[in-house]
Amino acid sequence: MAHRVIWSDEAVEDPQHISDYIARDSHHYAAAVVRRIVKSTRRLSRYPRSGRIVPEVGDQRFREILVYSYRIIYRVDERTVTIEAIAHGKRSLHFDID
Questions:
Q1: 70: β partners
Q2: CATH number for the domain harbouring residue 74
């Protein structure tokens, strides 16, 4: 059974922030990166546990997939996948664990 993919209020703004940052150098590359990030989240509906466990958290519910130099952090529940954050790989993670 497919999971429903939703975005947290915090994460929904992350693609725009990423796009704004990259667009300072290239609007074309900014759009390509954001498209790839969003496309990568769609597979989580069918394969919610395809990402690795987030090392800093160590909880099986919290996983990540890597797209370019970005980490897509998500939580897997019984029927939903919640995108919690999209962060650059060099940045520290700061989000609450329920």
A1: 67, 88
A2: 3.30.2310.20
CA distance 28 to 50: 29
Q: What is the three-class DSSP state of 10?
A: coil
**14-23 helix and 27-42 helix, angle to the nearest 10 degrees:** 150
Quote the number of domains for the chain: 1
> Bridge-partner residues for 88, per DSSP?
70
Better-predicted residue by pLDDT, 78 or 97: 78
The answer to whether residue 97 is domain-embedded is no
Domain encompassing residue 45 = 4-88
Note whether residue 98 is domain-resident.
no
* 38-51 confidence digits (pLDDT tens): 999 999 999 999 99
Q: Provide the token pair at 51.
A: 């990402």
Which residue's entry shows tokens 């800093």? 56
Structural tokens at position 80: 């939903």
